[in-house]
Amino acid sequence: MIQLLKAIVDLIAEYIPLIGSLALVTTLALLLHRSIKRHAKGYYYFFGAIALIALVNMFLPMLGVQSNPRALFNIPILGTLLRQFVHIYGISFPLLILIMYMGALSTKNKAVAKLMSIRKELSIMVGFPVIVHATTRIIHITPSNLKFIFKGESIGQFHGGPVGATSELLMQIAFFIGLFLTTLLLILWITSFPAIHRRLGTKRWKNIQRWSYLFYALLFCHSTLLRSSWAINALENGDSALRHLIALATTLLIFGSYLILRLRKAHLDRLRKEKRSK
Known about the structure:
Layout: H1 2-31, H2 33-38, H3 40-59, H4 78-86, H5 92-102, H6 110-116, H7 119-151, E1 157-158, E2 161-162, H8 165-190, H9 194-200, H10 202-209, H11 212-236, H12 242-277
Antiparallel strand pairs: 1-2
Helix pairs in contact: 1-5, 1-12, 3-4, 3-7, 5-7, 7-8, 8-11, 11-12
């Protein structure tokens, strides 16, 4: 019992940054919704500039340029922003959760209505940090994944311990889902820009944007597989898996509650349409 309580406390401590980021992102979006709507391009340029700095900083050493890739992270404010772009729980995941839940909640709520008015703008803004995070992960993980596929070499150590066959297989599947997620995100993101939207036309644009449901489904699978692999790996190494199991339950709660709310909204929308047609 004590061990379970300790695991719960540790998990809460781990998720405080995510909860805090979600609360901060939601508050800022509500406070700045008019500014974001009126000056969307300015926000895109700002997010794009941070993303460009992060990507250039990442690729310079790979191109043979002698530089310390961590140096920019020590610069006040800029370093904080770069870290938030690289790590998924800083800006990306909280914004994705917010955007996802917007489509499942009623716009009769004033706060939801304000957020829905800038949902497209937020979807474009979140693309910048997600691309930075995805690029970082792909660059660092791809070499070991290719060795696993073509040479059968294990990734060796993970979180300080050996990696079991089952957990490694789940990690590999999660990686390839992540690659498809990145491709799908790029399609959804690029077509969200107003200029591309106009070229496509409303009908074609809506058909493309419906793939966002597949994106959320694959994001759930990606997160679940990673959490499951970490839990299995802990069990195989004789460590406590409670932290990972509770984290897995948290993932199920986030996406499960969204699914319930989204289906409920779709059902209510159908009922309203049926009443209007009578």
